[in-house]
Amino acid sequence: MLLTGFPSAVFGTNCYVVAPAAGEECLVVDPGIEVLGQLGDVLREHRLRPAAVLLTHGHVDHTYSVTPVCGSNSVAAYIHTDDRDRLVDPLTEFASSGLLAMLEQQFGRAATWAQPQDVVEIADETVLELAGLRVRVVHAPGHTEGSVMFALDDVPEGAPADVSASLLTGDVLFAGSIGRTDLPGGDHAAMLASLRHRVLPQPDDTLVLPGHGPVTTIGRERATNPFLRELLAS
């Protein structure tokens, strides 16, 4: 499996591109703020054609470029039903946090938004057959109501020999940490339940591809992540 990722210019949100191989159709996961140039470079370098955009949740740092990516490639955006409303206008709920003012200051223009023309709602255990890949949806609320992880029964080329599956965790699980629950849609009790019932049951040899920061594995996080260790001890 070909998988490449890079952080966005704002908040370091990881945008991933996944395909069976170079020269094939691909999936774009979480195209955030100011990613279009680098995403275009990746697509050209590997001769990839987007077949869909997958969104781990509806916060604007993961969705800001979804509409131009979908529109320029005539593809749909896939998001959990419980976060669908965030694609109507994800900027509004962050206005009070100063995010919009920060974007204007950094890029010298006002942030604008239009939702994708084609949106497909997904649910827990939905299996997507897209771009020659099989992707299973794992609903894991807590960061938002509709936060999901995307599970693939394959690993990227060049991955360590001791991993056998991949999990795009969005803002549910990071290397050494977990997603915040103090942002719009956050629920700490729901996050703890997701970690206990959706993350901890994953096999140790699962490669974790988080929404921010470096890759890790379930086994490494089970052994070292303080949030998971606390749950295991309780």
TrEMBL record:
UniProt keyword annotations, A-Z: Hydrolase, Metal-binding, Zinc
Sections of the chain in a coiled coil: none
InterPro entries to which the protein is assigned, alphabetical: MBL_Glyoxalase_II, Metallo-B-lactamas, RibonucZ/Hydroxyglut_hydro
Domain Metallo-beta-lactamase: 12-212
UniProt superkingdom: Bacteria
Cofactor(s) required, per the database record: Zn(2+)
Xref: PANTHER family: HYDROXYACYLGLUTATHIONE HYDROLASE GLOC
Protein name: MBL fold metallo-hydrolase
